[in-house]
Amino acid sequence: MKRERLDKILSSQNLGTRREVGEMIRAGRVSVNGGTELRPGRKADTEADRISLDGKLLTVKERLVLMMDKPAGVLSASRDPSARTVVDLLPREWRRRGIFPAGRLDRDTEGLLILTDDGALAHRMLAPKSHVTKWYEARLAFPATEDDAAAFRAGLPLSDMVCLPSELTFPPGSDGTLALVKLREGKFHQVKRMFAARGNRVLALRRVRIGGLSLDANLAPGDARELSEDEIRSIFSEKIL
User: Fold this and answer.
1) Which CATH number fits domain 133-210: 3.40.50.2300, 3.10.310.50, 3.30.70.1560, 3.30.1360.180?
2) What is the average pLDDT value for the chain, to the nearest integer?
3) Cβ(141)–Cβ(179) under 8 Å?
4) What average pLDDT does range 197-209 have in this prediction?
5) Active-site annotation, residues
6) By the 8 A CB rule, do 43 and 5 touch?
């Protein structure tokens, strides 16, 4: 990593604003390689230097990548003056500057959402050339049929677009009112519009997988956890980790 100002490094880890961490440094609470550092502008290398706050060694993370089980009724946004957002649900230590949802889920759609402060990762996830697939579990008003599945595979025409070929399958034991949809794109309300074009209605929608990354069944709605590097790589693979 390139060398950065000490106050910038500490504030990037959500330890306070630049002003607040500057006061911590000047108060003698921060040490670098065992020596107390009083200068907020001191340059440090997070890989080569040992940085401690109040005697506790810091593990400085270059980026933060989280998996959330997004609940219904929450906006996929960093901030909104009139509604609760997914970032509002995060613990304080993860509400670091620049964290945002990589992609979106509709307000009433639940399930797997990735949040990160790594713009390059988000761009790669969302770029059409990456071909990152998304899997949705749809609860339907009426049973879907094999004719619907054939229409999805063919590329369903909507009023303003023709959808890319997609997969519609049914979990074991489903009577057709519970279906899985695999998309290679994610237009606004696309799954709902696709079923509407087939004379059906989506009652509930939940994203369960992105690429090879499945939603952690141990997460409660609104909870999040960090992703490992292997899990991040699995986003760009069809092979389930």
Assistant:
1) 3.30.70.1560
2) 91
3) no
4) 97
5) 106
6) yes
